[in-house]
């Protein structure tokens, strides 16, 4: 029987208790938002297919799931559990089990509950910020009929941001759907991509130079730093190292470079598509992007400190760097040339090629005249 490293039920209970309520809307308004998001997600699927040339597998099985903030927490706990529990079991076996020493006994008796509370606190923070996501990792489906991934939209967060930005609601909702639908096309229309990302994540965790007890302790330390920042007990201008920084071995850094490169590509591709599909689809796209970017770049000192702790700043850089890579590549060799990136893992850009699209084009597409890379864009992003 595996040792439970995290009390997942307690994580859900804590997260749903701590998460802030969403915007106040009537039941009729909430139903209208849910219905429109479902409609726009289906509409976005066609726009993404036509623009990118990527055909999502089984589009009729990929309807969007609309959730509130507690629903997002529950969905992500399911995903974390599906990924982490088998890996933690493998780590424990490799290190001779958890229960044999005093550290293991603490984890089993007390630590899993403490870690559950801390995980819940992190999820509560995230649940009020995420607009949508394509969930790669779901619990196994016994009958094999459910899709392997799920497009999820967090309705109260979408409503909150569109109100805050003062933008056209239908345009904004479709704009968000275009981004998330692009991810669904990537991970269902490119046969090897999902397994590649999963393999890299598995390798990263298994290459850890710390045992599971120490890894969970570092997770708790990061969560405690987040909670401390909320209470004003931390210096937002000098936050401690984030979770990813804390668990890297030399081998993990190499794996992380590959994982970061592929996630920068898919995030940047999503950001590029949501803007480039065109004003005939989202008439106010330029206004939405400008206002959304100002919001993304802003935030209080406290918010910036927490974003760094949780690795959200890394994700923001991925959007900018990845979008720049896609934009330069499509401009140079067209969408057909760019789509060679989905041919095989060997055709993915490296971390360095993300910054120098010309080098990727020279290696994969074959046009060496572009190898010197794009002009400097120091003022961008």
UniProtKB/TrEMBL annotation:
Pfam families: Zincin_2. InterPro entries: CHP03883_F420-assoc, Zinicin_2, Zinicin_2_N. Transmembrane segments: none annotated. It comes from the Bacteria. NCBIfam families: DUF2342_F420, putative hydrolase. This is Coenzyme F420 biosynthesis-associated protein.
């Amino acid at each position: 029987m595996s040792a439970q490293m995290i009390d997942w039920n307690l994580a859900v209970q804590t997260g749903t208790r701590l998460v802030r309520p969403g915007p106040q809307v009537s039941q009729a308004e909430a139903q209208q938002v849910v219905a429109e998001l479902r409609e726009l997600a289906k509409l976005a699927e066609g726009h993404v297919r036509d623009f990118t040339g990527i055909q999502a597998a089984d589009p009729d099985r990929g309807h969007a799931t609309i959730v509130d903030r507690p629903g997002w927490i529950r969905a992500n706990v399911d995903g974390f559990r599906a990924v982490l529990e088998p890996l933690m079991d493998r780590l424990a076996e490799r290190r001779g089990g958890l229960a044999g020493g005093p550290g293991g006994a603490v984890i089993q008796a007390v630590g899993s509950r403490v870690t559950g509370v801390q995980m819940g606190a992190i999820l509560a923070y995230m649940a009020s910020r995420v607009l949508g996501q394509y969930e790669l990792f779901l619990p196994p489906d016994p009958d094999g009929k459910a899709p392997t991934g799920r497009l999820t939209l967090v309705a109260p967060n979408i409503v909150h941001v569109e109100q805050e930005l003062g933008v056209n609601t239908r345009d904004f909702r479709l704009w968000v759907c275009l981004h998330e639908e692009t991810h669904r096309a990537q991970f269902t229309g490119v046969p090897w991509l999902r397994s590649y990302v999963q393999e890299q994540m598995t390798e990263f965790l298994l290459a850890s130079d710390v045992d599971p007890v120490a890894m969970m302790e570092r997770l708790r330390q990061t969560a405690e730093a987040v909670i401390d920042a909320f209470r004003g007990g931390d210096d937002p201008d000098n936050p401690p190292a984030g979770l990813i920084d804390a668990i890297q071995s030399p081998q993990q850094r190499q794996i992380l470079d590959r994982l970061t490169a592929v996630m920068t590509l898919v995030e940047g591709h999503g950001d590029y598509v949501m803007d480039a599909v065109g004003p005939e689809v989202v008439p106010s796209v330029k206004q939405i992007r400008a206002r959304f970017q100002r919001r993304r770049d802003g935030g209080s000192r406290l918010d910036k400190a927490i974003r760094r702790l949780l690795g959200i700043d890394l994700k923001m850089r991925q959007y900018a760097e990845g979008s720049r890579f896609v934009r330069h590549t499509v401009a140079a060799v067209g969408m057909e040339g760019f789509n060679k990136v989905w041919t095989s893992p060997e055709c993915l850009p490296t971390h360095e090629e993300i910054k120098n699209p010309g080098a990727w084009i020279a290696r994969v597409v074959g046009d060496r005249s572009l190898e010197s890379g794009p002009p400097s864009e120091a003022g961008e992003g």
